[in-house]
Amino acid sequence: xxxxxxxxxxxxxxxxxxxxxxxxxxxxxxxxxxxxxxxxxxxxxxxxxxxxxxxxxxxxxxxxxxxxxxxxxxxxxxxxxxxxxxxxxxxxxxxxxxxxxxxxxxxxxxxxxxxxxxxxxxxxxxxxxxxxxxxxxxxxxxxxxxxxxxxxxxxxxxxxxxxxxxxxxxxxxxxxxxxxxxxxxxxxxxxxxxxxxxxxxxxxxxxxxxxxxxxxxxxxxxxxxxxxxxxxxxxxxxxxxxxxxxxxxxxxxxxxxxxxxxxxxxxxxxxxxxxxxxxxxx
Length: 282
What we know:
It contains 11 helices and 14 strands. By secondary structure, it is α/β, with parallel strands linked by helices. It has a 6-stranded mixed β-sheet, with helices on both faces.
C-alpha cells in the first residue's frame, strides 16, 4: 500500500501549457482523502509552485489555514531536492545549498558566456535583468508570486552572503550549453541537469531522491510504501528512492526504462490516470 506519493510538477501534473486540470487536482484530493501523503516534488522554488495546487491546498484546509491538518499537502520538495519544507511547522527538514563562495566562483567562471541567469534563494526565484524577469512573469503567469529582479546576480549574492538552492542558466546563443558544461567540470561539488533551453545547477548533495528518502525516514514510511510519478532526468533519483515508479508518456527514455508503469502524456492527464489506476484502484 502506498502511503507517500511524490509527484513532479512541470511535465507531469501540469499540461504542456503549464496548467493543472480539474481532473488532476481532483485525483490528488481523492488520494489525500484516502490517507496518502501527497508531496509536490519540483524543480521550482517553493513560492512558484503551481497556483492551482497552492490555492487548492488552502481551500481544502478550510478557513483556519493549512495548520488545520486537512490540507491537500503539508510537505514540499523544491529546487530539485535542495529544500524539503514542512509547511505546517514552517520548518526546513532538509537543505543542500550552494555556499556563497562556490556560487560566486561559478558565476565568475561563467562571465564570458552569453547566458540568462536565475537562482533560487530563500524560496524565491531571483532573475538577473529586466528582460529575463519579464519573460519569467509571462511564462509563469499566476505562478510567479516568488519572482524578484536583481541588476547583477554576483553583486546580490556577495552583498547578502546568500546560500543558493539552485541556479538556472538560460542558453541565449548557440554553444552556451557546451561552455557551461565545461565550466562545471571545475566544480565537482555541483551537479547540472539540462534541457535544450537551460541548465539547472545545484549542490551535489541535493536530489529529489535524497529529499524523498529523508522525508520517508522522518515520517517512518518505508521505501516500499513510497510511490512517485515523473517525466524528467531530474526524477531519476526519485525513482531510486521509491517502491512504485510511474513514468509519464512524455518522459525521457531513461525514466521509462526504470518505471513499473508508463501512463499517457501530460497532454492527456497521464498523472491523474496514474493516481486513479495505481493509487486509488478505480
